[in-house]
C-alpha cells in the first residue's frame, strides 16, 4: 500500500522507475509497481536481485513475461540472471555489478591466515548456517584454536543454530553478532581471516564483495550466481553445495598455503574495486542516457525495493 501510494502521489515528478525484482511473493508488489509505472507513462528498469529468480520464472512463465515486458531495460548484477531472464524478455538486458562503498571497508592483505572464520547472512534455511558450524567442527579436529563469528538478522533459525553449537560442543568458539552495521562488519572482518559462504541459493551476495574489500579469502558454495561472481582459485575457492567436508578442506588448504591466501586476498580486492561506485557510476549513467533521459546525474527516480 505504501509503495502504491508513493507512486500515485509522487511518481509523476520522477523520470523513471527502478524496481528491485526478487520474484517469489514480492513479485505481486513488483507487478503492481510496474503496472502503475506504465499508467504514469514512466520508463521502467527492473533490477534483478533474487537468487531464486530462475526457478520462479520457470514456475510462472506467463506471469513473468507479462511483468517483464513492461520494462524498457532489465539490469542484472552478473551473467547468471541475465542469461536466465533472456528466455522471458526480448528487450535490453544490461549487466551492472552490485555496488559497494569501498571507503567503508579497511583492506588488510592476508599474507598468512589462521582458522578464524566469518559467516554473514541472515539465519534462514537458504543460507544454510548449520553448515558453517559443521565446517568449524571439522577444522577444530586439527586446529583446536579455530573460531567462527556469525553475523546477520534472525529469520527463524538463530535459536536452533545456537542450540546446535551447544550440542556440537562449539559454544565456546562461536560468537553470534546479531545484525551487523558497517562498523560491526569492519570489526568482525579485522578479527577474522577467512570468509565462508554456505548459501544454498543466491545471486550476487554483497557479503562476498564486502569480504573481498576487507582482504579476506573467500570459500563459497558453488550455487546460483556464485560461479559467475567468484573465479575459483583466483578470487576465492568454490565447493559443492552443503559439503562441509570439502569446505573444511578448503579452509585448511588456505591455512597451510600462505601464497594461496595472499593470491586470493589480492584477487578479491581487485574484484571488489570493480564494484566500487567509481566503476559502476558510468554504467548507470549510460543506461539512463540510452533510455532517453536527461543527463544521468540529474535524473530523479523512485527506487522500489
Please describe what this structure looks like.
This protein has 305 residues and is of the alpha/beta class. It folds into 2 domains: 2-99 and 277-304, Rossmann fold (3-Layer(aba) Sandwich); 102-273, 3-Layer(aba) Sandwich (Rossmann fold). Helix content is 43%, strand content 16%. It contains 13 helices and 11 strands. The protein has helices spanning 2-10, 27-40, 53-59, 61-68, 79-85, 129-140, 158-167, 182-191, 206-213, 226-229, 244-256, 258-273, 277-290, and strands at residues 16-21, 44-48, 73-76, 92-95, 116-120, 147-151, 174-178, 194-197, 218-221, 237-239, 301-304. The strands form 2 sheets. It has a 6-stranded parallel β-sheet with strand order 7-6-5-8-9-10, with helices on both faces. The chain has a 5-stranded parallel β-sheet with strand order 4-3-2-1-11. Helix 1 (2-10) runs parallel beside helix 2 (27-40) and helix 9 crosses helix 12 (258-273). The radius of gyration is 21 Å and the shape is elongated. The two termini are 13 Å apart.
Amino acid at each position: 500500500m505504501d509503495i502504491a501510494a508513493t507512486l500515485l502521489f509522487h511518481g509523476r515528478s520522477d523520470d523513471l522507475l527502478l524496481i528491485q525484482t526478487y520474484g517469489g511473493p514480492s513479485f505481486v508488489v513488483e507487478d503492481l509497481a510496474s503496472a502503475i509505472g506504465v499508467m504514469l507513462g514512466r520508463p521502467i528498469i527492473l533490477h534483478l536481485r533474487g537468487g531464486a529468480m530462475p526457478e520462479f520464472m520457470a514456475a510462472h512463465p506467463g506471469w513473468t513475461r507479462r511483468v517483464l515486458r513492461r520494462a524498457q531495460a532489465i539490469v542484472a548484477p552478473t551473467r547468471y540472471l541475465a542469461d536466465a531472464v533472456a528466455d522471458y524478455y526480448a528487450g535490453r538486458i544490461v549487466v551492472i555489478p552490485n555496488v559497494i562503498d569501498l571507503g567503508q571497508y579497511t583492506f588488510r592483505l592476508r599474507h598468512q591466515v589462521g582458522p578464524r572464520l566469518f559467516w554473514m547472512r541472515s539465519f534462514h534455511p537458504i543460507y544454510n548456517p548449520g553448515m558453517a558450524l559443521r565446517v568449524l567442527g571439522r577444522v577444530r579436529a586439527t586446529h583446536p584454536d579455530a573460531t567462527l563469528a556469525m553475523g546477520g538478522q534472525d529469520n527463524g533459525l538463530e535459536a536452533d543454530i545456537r542450540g546446535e553449537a551447544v550440542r556440537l560442543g562449539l559454544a565456546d568458539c562461536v560468537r553470534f553478532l546479531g545484525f551487523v552495521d558497517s562498523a560491526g562488519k569492519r570489526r568482525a572482518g579485522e578479527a577474522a581471516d577467512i570468509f565462508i559462504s554456505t548459501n544454498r541459493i543466491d545471486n550476487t551476495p554483497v557479503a562476498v564483495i564486502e569480504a573481498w574489500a576487507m582482504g579476506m579469502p573467500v570459500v563459497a558454495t558453488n550455487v546460483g550466481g556464485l560461479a559467475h561472481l567468484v573465479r575459483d582459485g583466483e578470487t576465492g575457492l568454490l565447493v559443492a553445495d552443503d559439503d562441509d567436508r570439502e569446505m573444511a578442506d578448503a579452509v585448511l588448504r588456505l591455512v597451510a598455503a600462505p601464497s594461496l591466501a595472499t593470491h586470493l586476498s589480492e584477487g578479491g580486492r581487485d574484484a571488489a574495486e570493480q564494484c566500487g561506485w567509481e566503476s559502476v557510476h558510468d554504467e548507470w549513467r549510460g543506461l539512463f542516457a540510452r533510455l532517453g533521459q536527461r543527463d544521468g546525474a540529474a535524473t530523479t527516480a523512485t527506487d522500489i525495493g
